[in-house]
## 1
Amino acid sequence: MQITVVDHPLLKAKMTRLRDINTDCATFRRTIGEVAMLLTFEAAAGIPMEECQVTTPLCETTGSRIHGTVNVIPILRAGLGFMEGVLTVLPEANVGHIGMSRNETTLEPMEYYCKLPKDLDAYTIVVDPMLATGGSAVAAVDQLKKRGLKNICFMCLVAAPEGVLKLNAAHPDVKIYAAALDDHLNEKGYIVPGLGDAGDRIFGTL
Ligand code: PRP
Ligand code: URA
């Protein structure tokens, strides 16, 4: 199984708050933004860099800057919950959107929207809080590659082993970054222990 589970005390504490059924919507939303910031540092490790010259108050020295652009693509709707945090860390990123809805009975994903950034060669971070069966992530990456994106990684809060294996098998080139790798899926396709329905908890819906 190929996945990077980011191991940091702050992330662990924030994940516990997100898992808690008693965490209210405002706290959930704020915390997911904080976790997104921390995860983005890790997911951005693969960004192409280039050397540049910089003048400090004392002298000239060599520094680094991002080479080219970075794309961030949230999978609607729950991926939107990540965006404030991601863009705090990567304010220059271009943002695309892909809408995927998982049928609650068949668990099959259906695409309902897609608008991509201009630069198809850019380093692209696809974000969605939950990687459960992996159906939505695989379908989203299938579509993004079909439309020309090449250099893709996937960032989530919680992954289930089933989803990791499915995404690894379909797209071995796509690195996965997560704050937690959970135990299993239940009979309804929810991650256990998980945190429930991420979209509903972010937006306060049923
Ligand atoms: C959730 C989640 C993922 C998907 C994960 O979205 O945000 O996109 O389920 O499940 P999977 O790995 O089994 O495909 P959902 O379809 O509930 O839509 P939402 O974001 O609008 O809540
Ligand atoms: N989607 C969610 O929001 N939560 C899960 O546990 C599984 C899929």
Note: The first strand starts at residue 4 and ends at 5.
## 2
Amino acid sequence: MTLKNNLRQYIDAGYPILYIDAYEEIKTDEIISSLNLEKGLIEWNAADGLVNFKNKTPLMETKMSLCEALAFLNSSGDIDNHLVVLKDAHTFLSSDDTDTVAIIKRICQRIINGQIDSTIIIVSPVISIPKEIEKYVTVFEMDPMLQDDICDHVREYLNAYDISVGEKLLNEIAIAFKGLTMYEIDTLLNLSLAENGEITQKDLKLIFEQKRQIIMKSNTLEMINVKEKITDIGGLDNLKKWLERKAAIFRDIDSAVQFGVDMPKGVLIAGIPGCGKSLAAKATSALFEVPLLKLDMGKIMGKYLGESETNMRKAIELAETISPCVLWVDELEKAFAGTDGSGHEVTMRLFATFLTWLQEKTSPVFVVATANDISKMPPELLRKGRFDDIFYVDLPNDNERKRIFEIHIRKRRPADLSGIDVSALVGKSSGYSGADIESVVVEAVEDAFANKQDGLKTDNVLKIINSTKSLSDIMGEKIKNLRKFYSESGNFKNAT
Ligand code: ATP
């Protein structure tokens, strides 16, 4: 839903404070004016105090502070049947300012009790809400600009500087700007012009670099530096083959789509801990030759009403602006804990937002979701049309353990591998996860070094295996239940 529709709906429903997280005051003024409500509009800003919303002329001879202005509007009754738009308010909104908080609380209670018909709209680039009034606040964000609007906006901006660019470059710039707000776009245009007084192909690089910066500041997305390759995964041949096929499509996406191939959506990789799910997510990004973004669900969850959904939408939009990319959602079951019906309403809504996006997604954002236990996740997640496929990762079989031992020994002691009896290690490591095998190799190499040996020997590794408890030993019952669930469900492809 657009910001305008959201505002209208929440105003009609009597929500007391609507907080628009935005820099663009001119744009938010336009949106608020376009609501055409049968209510008056009053604005307060730090420069002039109370002003006429339309022409910004001061309404009072002396400038009132935020607290004075609200107290005046409340006691005079002028607040009734009005929208009160507050600008620059974030610097004055703190729990320390008890008078301001108290008057806002009073107004909110009067709105909720139906004593006055009014809404406070706060427009601010910084979300700052004192705890005492959190429950009255709903947070909104600006609508990201559509590609055509971005084109018009950039053209207008450049015309003002007597600069013209070809349609092709203009379109490329508009695509690169997608997902950004008008403020962010203008900032980047200013920056590009300041560099050399013109906009050229080279500036696209600057735009992408700035987008990276935005991601780094965004908190909800992390850009992961990937060293892992698909050949670093021992076993999981089915999954690797499947990923290779998708990679071939992804690397030549325009021709593939033109041919009629559907845009790849993503994959859910579920199963036993420590068996290469995260490794596969990272290797996917290397294989697809695109950046890896990790979605941090902990940071998506916000304190304020509407904030979590806003964060989720922003993260998705940012990922789309960076696309083509791989978006890794780790520990999916924790991210959406409680969506089996026992959960919090916010989590349910977030989950719905995520699923709808996944279902309707046409952008080249390839989602890799990883999870240990999805037995309690709602069935709609597993329905066709969400992920392209769902894979189950089991404990590695003999052949896979052999390859995992080889990978980790080769990584650390390449020259010693040929002298090691890997089959003997395989025979002694049934029930070990990939992570168990890696840690055995790490310790064995350390052991060989401590013994002043000239290389790693089979005995070093066997000794560590004998003194190590495997994942299956430690989490016996849980692993047994997980394996039973995945193998009996029939919904999942075996990654092996
Ligand atoms: P969790 O569910 O606990 O997050 P996971 O399945 O994501 O576990 P990884 O993080 O991929 O497990 O594995 C941990 C480490 O174990 C990897 O970094 C890798 O070094 C090693 N490992 C696990 N599985 C394999 C494998 N199949 N091949 C090679 N190394 C592996």
Note: The chain has four domains: 2-141, 147-217, 230-393, 398-474.
